[in-house]
Specification:
The structure is a homodimer. Chain A folds into two domains: about 1-60, Multidrug-efflux Transporter Regulator, Chain: A, Domain 2 (Orthogonal Bundle), CATH 1.10.1660.10; about 75-119. By secondary structure, chain A is mainly alpha-helical. In chain A, strands 1-2 form a two-stranded antiparallel sheet. In chain A, about 70% of the residues lie in helices and about 5% in strands. The first copy, chain A, contains five helices and two strands, in the order ααββααα. Chains A and B meet through α3, α4 and α5 of A and α3, α4 and α5 of B. The structure holds a DNA duplex (30 and 30 nucleotides).
Chain lengths: ~120, ~120
DNA sequence: ATAAAGTATGAAGTATACTATATAGTTTAA
DNA sequence: TTAAACTATATAGTATACTTCATACTTTAT
């Protein structure tokens, strides 16, 4: 269990952003009931994993809302198996679409490069 | 050559957004000098191609600024071949990074699915 | 013991990317 | 010919995702 500063250093995500993600319901830390002099929040590996996932997903254009949909499936036990798998399968489709679009972009850029070289 | 309404219908991008992209320097229409009763702007296939490229690039998380960098190489003749190819090669690297991240996300989601199924 | 560094909270500010509104002129179809 | 539809311009407003600031308390290092 680590404090926000360590979590920030570990993931490369600024403290302010981590707090913003926590307020947005993407990650969750916990108070240690035995600590009574302060209200410092502690984060486990789960939070670190989620932050790393957020970084990846954001880099490929998913919104925080879309990311939350997946993350909620991650550890959520109250939703039916079927519903959980459905959400995840939808995301897999979206990911494949994005991969297709990236490949289409590559093709376009190759064409553009060829045009430039033949000038 | 088409007016903004037709361009919008062809690409699925709202007129307001097209105007915003033009103001941002991503696309460019032209006035017809022979038309003197109005100042309607006409767009060619180049603008339509660029808009389709913008759609793809945005879907995979590129910012308008990053997209503009590529688009400027597209038809720009004032920049040296070498500089143009350098920018495009950088984008190709970024695209490959994004594909890697998408594959990593797929792997994570598969693990998550397996966990759910084994509950 | 005290200054520096870390933590929590709330509120305001910023950047990006639109989206809507108001105004005014132009074109087109009934 | 006139009302509906289209176009241009400028300005303001909105949503998302942070980022900064102010305040106050706690911990840590010297």
């Amino acid at each position: 269990m680590k404090l926000i500063n360590q979590l920030s250093k570990e993931t490369g995500i600024p403290i302010g952003t981590i707090r913003f993600y926590e307020k947005s319901g993407l990650i969750k830390g916990e108070l240690k009931p035995e600590v009574k002099t302060n209200n410092y929040v502690y984060y486990g590996e789960e939070a670190a994993d989620k932050l790393r996932f957020i970084l990846m997903a954001k880099a490929v254009g998913f919104t925080l809302h879309e990311i939350k949909e997946v993350i909620d499936m991650w550890y959520e036990k109250t939703i039916s198996k079927k519903a959980q798998l459905k959400v995840l399968d939808q995301k897999l489709l979206q990911i494949d679409e994005k991969i297709s679009e990236l490949n289409a972009m590559k093709a376009q850029i190759f064409i553009c490069k060829t045009n430039i070289q033949n000038r």
